[in-house]
Amino acid sequence: MSTQSDKGTALITGASSGIGATYAERLARRGYDLLLVARDRQRLEGIAERLRQDHGVAVEVLRADLTTKMDLSSVEQRLRGDAAIRLLVNNAGMAMEGTLAEANLDKVDTMIRLNIVALTHLSAAAAARFGAAGQGAIINIGSVVALAPEMFNAAYSATKAYVLSLSQSLQAELGKLDVRVQAVLPGVTRTEIWERSGMDASALPAEMVMEVGELVDAALAGFDQGELVTIPSLPDAGDWAAAMDARAKLGPNLSHNHPAARYQ
Asked: Which domains does the chain have, with CATH numbers?
């Protein structure tokens, strides 16, 4: 796929609606060519045609179900082999309602394959090639429940805690290679994920629900500012800095040769 600008190509998963489709529009506006990945080819084609006409960028569609090994492998290999790709937006994800004890574990397994396994494979592929090239960026879409797991159900919250942890560790590995990593932690956002998971966002207080355009614009502003973790709803960035300072203070005491006195 040829590129039309020096920005190269952005690969966006879950690009057929919601956050992914909005990232596609915003990045096309910035001059990126696009490789759009999702299960719904028809919707992808419609988005692609509109973005080509509106922004004059090259847009390719790749139909893939990232919960299947074959489709995930095809996207992974594309990432490893296409030097034009300089930005990966790991947006594809799913949620589910209910407690873990009551959950359909087949659905839990599918959610883990999408939210964790697929994101990990694509992050690894991007890390290998971007690191070798000394340029590129990975944006992982997580959730604020990574910081407040009691607010939502156990399995979904745990998958998003993984996204945050992976992103932080990956930045430590890739930062010295001039590769950027950003974890975006949205709160409740008005997207189709609610309907698909059987939940009703309209039942929540209006002041808790962010429109998807505002979410993505804030996330990209955080990216431009060099943030490793972007929490679009958080009014005072100092609160996050204080949390990270508190975490750092734990560091020297997390591994000693004897238990703390209170356990003896």
From this structure: 9-263 (3.40.50.720)
